[in-house]
Specification:
The chain is α+β, with helices and mostly antiparallel strands. 53% of the residues lie in helices and 13% in strands. Strands 1-2-3 form a 3-stranded antiparallel beta sheet. The protein has a 3-stranded antiparallel beta sheet with strand order 4-5-6, with no helix packed on it. A hairpin with a 6-residue loop joins β2 and β3. It is rod-shaped.
Amino acid sequence: MDLTAIAGAYQGIRNIKEIVSGFIDSKADAAAKEKVFDVKERLGAIQDTLFELRDTLAALQDENARLRAQVAAGEAWQQRAAEYKLVETTGGAIVYQYSGEPAHYACPNCFEGKKVSILQSNRSYKGSYSCKACDASYLLEPLKPIAPPRLY
């Protein structure tokens, strides 16, 4: 059932109430008027129920849309996460490595929070990389030897 069906039902009941009101105004005996009045009250209760159903349906449709978006986001993350694998680098850090191009590493801290933050080189002799999102630092490359200064 959708909102148009509920709106149609509401309109139909409203029309029936108008017809019943016409019966009350006509010349009829007291017993008939009492029964018509009872029908009119019941139709009003049905209208109230339709209003409640309309509100419930709208809330359920909103919840359904929200849950569908949540499922789609989860599936998108699963597809993206499948492109990474947890590795130990030559520098001894445990990070996520991307299997495609361009080759890069992702921060395991952020990855657990379902976010890919690419590690950036600090351009140091220590071979350290840092995550710009959470400020974590990782030694991805082995220490590079420092060339002694040249004396002339």
